[in-house]
Amino acid sequence: MPGGRLTQQERQQIALGLADSLPYAEIGRRLDRPTSTITREVMRNGGPTAYRADLAHRATEHRAHRRRKAAPRDANRPPQEYGRDAEAVREYEETFTTVFMQSGLPKMTARVLAGLYTTDAGSLTASELAGRLQVSPASVSKAVAFLEGQGLVRRERDERRRERYVVDDDVMYQSMMASARATAHLSEVARQGVGVLGPDTPAAARLENIARFVDFVSESIARAADQAREILHTKPGGTSDSVT
């Protein structure tokens, strides 16, 4: 039933849908399930090419068993702030993680980024992240190193000299600008090929078309990112920087 756990029969239908190359949205429509449920189910169980209904069902049963065993330990954790539903928050973080994985991030890196995004402070120490995700500090460190290299996370020292990993309010702006710069670099390389291959050759014409297309896209990304940060950036409480 919609909203409940996926049944083994539903998982078999998902596997059949993947075999037929159906989009997640269509599989969800046929099962009367949200697209996010199908996406999360597939991504946490091997992805679209490796998904197996029986293995996914057993893995889900195993995770549920582990959560039941961990309940006494979890009960000692501080309650969620603002009266949040802890289970709903956990499910949302899994969905957020799945979205990042679909964009190309490794699973642990995606989990770390989702964990940072969903904290009110926007920062956590390595030990806090490790405890929150129930993983080793080494796994967290490797993931953070990757995110830092992409400009998605930065490090700072708090008053106790502990290293904290931070996502700034304009992290998406920085990410978009980094994407624009990378795209612009592709244009430069393509135009180098025009000179190497000869300006009047079919190969050079193809590279020039690539460069023009990439120029337009990178400039559009940078312009849209600047406008969005200026107009749409919101502060806690729902206020905006825009002038009415």
From TrEMBL:
Pfam families: HTH_38 (PF13936), MarR_2 (PF12802). InterPro entries: HTH_MarR-typ, IS30-like_HTH, Transposase-Integrase, WH-like_DNA-bd_sf, WH_DNA-bd_sf. Residues 5-45 form the Transposase IS30-like HTH domain. Residues 103-160 form the HTH marR-type domain. Residues 58-88 are annotated as: Disordered. Residues 71-88 have a biased composition (Basic and acidic residues). PANTHER family: TRANSPOSASE, TRANSPOSASE INSI FOR INSERTION SEQUENCE ELEMENT IS30A-RELATED. This is Helix-turn-helix domain-containing protein. It comes from Streptomyces blastmyceticus.
